[in-house]
Specification:
This is SemiSWEET family sugar transporter. This protein is an all-alpha fold. It is 76% helix and 0% strand.
Amino acid sequence: MQTWWLTALGLAAGLCTSFSFVPQVLKAWRERDTEAISKRMYVASLIAYSLWIVHGLMITSVPVILFNAVNVVFAGLVLAMKLRGLKPEEGR
């Protein structure tokens, strides 16, 4: 298989994976409610994405590096909101 197809496949998969975080980030941000979000899951995810970045650097894979960096940002945002203890605003 040609290399550009593999890169295109990796970019498509990474795009889908990374943007799956967007609804969670928006919901937590808009509703200010992180009660149902698992802190342990997001800590484990951040560790995993960081390891994937290292792996991507070792094999020089742009899709692996790029989208795991995006995942670190999104998962970090959700975890930061969770740690800040966002609660729904009263009277809404």
